[in-house]
Amino acid sequence: MTGPRYTDLVNSLPSTVPFVGPEELERSRGTPFRARLGANESLFGPSPAAVKAMQAEALEIWKYGDPTSHDLRAALADHMQARVENILVGEGIDGLLGNLVRLLVAPGDAVVTSDGAYPTFNYHVAGFGGVLHKVPYRDDREDPAALLTRAKEVDAKLVYLANPDNPMGSWYPGTDILAALDDLPDGCLLLLDEAYIEFAPTGVAAPIDADDPRVIRMRTFSKGYGMAGARIGYAVGAPDLIRAFDRIRNHFGMNRVAQAGALAALRDTAWLAHVQDQVATARDRIAAIAADNGLVALPSATNFVAVDCGADGAFATRVLDALLARGVFVRKPVVPPQDRCIRISCGRPQDLDVLAETLPQALAAARA
Amino acid sequence: MTGPRYTDLVNSLPSTVPFVGPEELERSRGTPFRARLGANESLFGPSPAAVKAMQAEALEIWKYGDPTSHDLRAALADHMQARVENILVGEGIDGLLGNLVRLLVAPGDAVVTSDGAYPTFNYHVAGFGGVLHKVPYRDDREDPAALLTRAKEVDAKLVYLANPDNPMGSWYPGTDILAALDDLPDGCLLLLDEAYIEFAPTGVAAPIDADDPRVIRMRTFSKGYGMAGARIGYAVGAPDLIRAFDRIRNHFGMNRVAQAGALAALRDTAWLAHVQDQVATARDRIAAIAADNGLVALPSATNFVAVDCGADGAFATRVLDALLARGVFVRKPVVPPQDRCIRISCGRPQDLDVLAETLPQALAAARA
C-alpha cells in the first residue's frame, strides 16, 4: 500500500515554514512573553468601533461572508480614489501574495526581490516553482533601480518591492516609485507592498493610477488598523488583473467578522490617527532606549524599528536570544549586513519599559 | 506596454465562479430574501458559548492567530480519537480542498468525482490543471464502487466522495466506506468529505483509523456548528500527509476569532444536540410541505432536503426561479436526473412558513 502521490514540485519543496509563531515559542519556554514585540502587530489594538462591529457580527457568523466583499470594496475604492473594479479583498497580504504568484509564476519563471525582504513572498514563489533572483539592499534600503535592472536581465514576470520596507523600516518618496515604473520591463508586474504605509510620512504612498497595468499595490488591516488576527487585506490594480484572481481565489474564503471589522476600522479615522501618534512616540522611545545602551536605531516609516547592535549578525543573534530568554519577543533580519540589527515592534509604554529593563542585560549576556 | 503575463494554466481557466452568493442576488433583486435557505447554512445559529468566545477574542484581534492552531487541534484530536499529528485546521473545507488538490494534482493528472457533486472541488481541480473524470449518481446517491473502478481505469491520484452527500442528502453506512477502501488503487487518495456528518444517523461516520494513509477526511464548523462565516474546518489523516500541507499552506492564514469560536463550539455539545434536533424537525416539515404540494422529499442525512419537483430539470429551474422571485433563496442540483430536484436548507419555523406560503405559488408559476 503506497501513500499519496505528491506532485514533483511538492516533493521538491522543503518542509521549513516562513516563521515560528510567538505562541509556539511560548510553549517551548513554558511561560508567556512579557512583551510581544516581534511580529509588527499593533499593540495599541484595533479601533473600538471595529471591535464593536466584530462583536455584533459574531451573531451573524452562521452566514457565509459575501464572496464579493461588496460593501468593503466600495469603501476601499473611495479610500483609494479608485473604482470597485480596481479593488480585491483577500485573506491578508499573505493570502493575496500566494494568489498573485499563482496567477503569474509557472515552474521555472523568474521573479525578483531584495535579499532579506519578506520571507512569505519567497515561500510562495518557491511553492509555485518560481526561480527567485535576489538583489542586495543598498545602504539598508531596497534598491529599486537594481531590482528593475535584474528584472530585465532575467526576464522576470514579477518584482517585489516594499515601501516602506520590512525589516529595515526604510522608505522612498512615492514619486521615486512612480518614476521607477518607467524602467519596468514590458510584461513584468511590480508588486508594491504597502503594508506599513499608514505609518509613513506624507508623500511615501506612490501616486499610482489604480488602472496602471504595470503595478499591483497591496495593503492590509493587520498593521495600522490593528487587526492582524482577522486576516484581511486588499489589492489595488487594473480591473483585468483584479478580475483574473476570480479564476483561482477561494471565493467564499473571507471571514465575515473580518469583513465587518475592516469596514468599521476604515471609517474610524480618529483611531488610526491615535495609533499613528502612539507609534511615532514609541519609535522615539525605542531609539532612546537604543541610545541609552550605546546602540543606533535606524530611521523608520513603519511600526517597528531596526536597531543596529553594532557588530555582526552572530552578535545580534545573541542579543535576540538573550531578549527572548528574558521574555521579550523580537525578530531580526537574517541577511548580512542587515543582520547586525534586531527588529523591535512599537509597543505601549509598559511594553517598552520591559525592553528598557532587559536590553542592558541582553547586551551584557551577548558580550559575555 | 503589455500587461502581466499569466501562466498558460491561468490563461486556460474560465472566469466563471463556483457559486453566486445570496448577497449578490439580493443586490440584483433590490431587496433582501425573506428566507435564506440556499447555502445550507445553519439558521439555528452558532453556540451562544461560541459567540461569547468570539466576542471576547475580538479584543485580541491585533495578534496574529497561532499558525499551528495548537489548542484547537488538541481538542479536535480528542474529538476524533486521533493524535494532534493527524489534525490540520484550515480556512474551511474549501480552503483545505484547494491545498489538497495543489499537493497532489499537476497539469494532466487524473481526478475522479461524481457528476453533480461539489462544484468547488471541481473548481480547484481545474485550477491546478487536473483532468476531472465524472461518474454518474446511481439512484440519487454517489456510487463508491463506480468511483473506485473509474479511479483504477484512469490512474487517478485523488477521488472525491461526500458522505452524507451534497446536493442529494443521501448517505452510506460508514462500514461501507471502510470496506470500499480495499478497492482503492495504490497511490490513489480518497478524499472523504464529511461536512454534514453531524446531521447523519449513528454509524454513518466511517470507522477509519486516523493513521490510514489511503484516506483524508474533512469536516467543518460551517454546518452543524453554525459558523459558515468563520471559515474554519479541519482534515484528519496520516501524519505524513498532514505535514505535507505545511509545505504550501498559508501558515498565518487563520482568523483568531474563528479559532476561538471553533474551540468553544466544539465543547458545547448541548448546543449541537439542540441544532440536530431542530434540523430533524425542519427536515420533517420540509417533507410535509413538499407532500402538501404533491411533491416528494428525498430522505436526508444533512441539514437540507432535496425535493423532487416531479418533472425535468427545466421545470425544477422554473420552480427555483419562481421561489427566488418570491424572496426564497434556494439552490438546485444541475446534472440530470438529479436536476429534477430543488435543494432546500433546513430553517426555523418562520423560514419554513415562508416556504409553505410561496411553494404553491412557485409551482403554479412554473406550470403556467
From TrEMBL, chains A, B:
Domain (Aminotransferase class I/classII large) ranges: 37-359
Originating species: Roseovarius litoreus
Family statement: Belongs to the class-II pyridoxal-phosphate-dependent aminotransferase family.
Record has Repeat as a keyword: no
Cofactor: pyridoxal 5'-phosphate
PROSITE patterns: AA_TRANSFER_CLASS_2
Classification via Pfam families: Aminotran_1_2
Protein name per its UniProtKB record: Histidinol-phosphate aminotransferase
Domain of life from the UniProt record: Bacteria
GO molecular function: pyridoxal phosphate binding; transaminase activity
InterPro entries assigned to the protein according to its UniProt record, in alphabetical order: Aminotrans_II_pyridoxalP_BS, Aminotransferase_I/II_large, PyrdxlP-dep_Trfase, PyrdxlP-dep_Trfase_major, PyrdxlP-dep_Trfase_small
UniProt lineage: Bacteria, Pseudomonadati, Pseudomonadota, Alphaproteobacteria, Rhodobacterales
Entry keyword Transferase: yes
SUPFAM superfamilies documented for this protein: PLP-dependent transferases
Key words, A-Z: Aminotransferase, Pyridoxal phosphate, Transferase
Entries under CDD domains matching the protein: AAT_like
